[in-house]
Amino acid sequence: MAYTKRHRDIFNKGEYLEKEKIYFLGRTGEYGTIAKLYRYGIDAFLTNGNRKAFDIIATKNHKNAYIQVKTSKEQSFPTRFFQKYYDNEIPSPDFWVFVYSFPETNWVYKERYFILAHEELKQIQGQFVLPYFKKEGASTIEDVMRIEKDKILNKKPVGVDKIPLNLISSYEDRFDKIWNFLN
């Protein structure tokens, strides 16, 4: 198959990821997650659009699990966790799947999957960002949530939460969590 300029641009790993490249990278993680779920006998499908609380609905035994997928070529993942979930009443996914996509050879990528329940991510993300919020008077994760909520409601600038790969490495390939949730 001959690759067009458009294909070469999409596959070029040395360039800045433009919106189209980011879209394809995200889809790689989403479809890869669905494939992994199917291996567990879990039916799963994508939701459409970018303004929703989750990317995938997994279903088994008349139960649903709502999953947010974040894919990155870097060793950190933007979550926007406390910018989105600053209040416990905001609908949230049941699980987060972080997909680290990295080149194995020039044209072959490999993916690693890390699965966390929403509450697990809240605790890890909270402990990671808490030192940054201490200067604003935060001493607990609930304080971080209150501060972020105040900023958002008062239209003040907020940052973007990221989670480093090393903090979630023990959650690799934990698709059994989703299986157990649905059974």
Task: Please give a structural write-up.
By secondary structure, this protein is of the alpha+beta class. It contains seven helices and seven strands, in the order H-H-E-E-E-E-H-E-E-H-H-E-H-H. Strand 2 and strand 3 form a beta hairpin. It is globular, with a radius of gyration of 18 Å. The N terminus is likely disordered.
Key traits:
alpha+beta, five-stranded mixed beta sheet, disordered N terminus, 23% strand, Trna Endonuclease, Chain: A, domain 1, 183 residues, two-stranded antiparallel sheet, single chain
Low-confidence stretches: 1-10
Stated plainly, the CATH topology is called Trna Endonuclease, Chain: A, domain 1
Order of helices and strands: HHEEEEHEEHHEHH
Number of individual domains: 1
Q: What's the count of strands?
A: 7
What sort of overall outline do the alpha carbons produce when their principal axes are compared? Answer: globular
Chain-averaged pLDDT = 88
SSE inventory with pairings:
Elements (H helix, E strand, L loop, with lengths): L4 H7 L7 H21 L3 E4 L9 E5 L2 E10 L3 E3 L2 H4 L10 E9 L5 E9 H16 L7 H13 L8 E3 H4 L7 H7 L1
What is the gist of this entry?
The chain is an alpha+beta fold. It has helices at residues 5-11, 19-39, 81-84, 118-133, 141-153, 165-168, 176-182, and strands at residues 43-46, 56-60, 63-72, 76-78, 95-103, 109-117, 162-164.
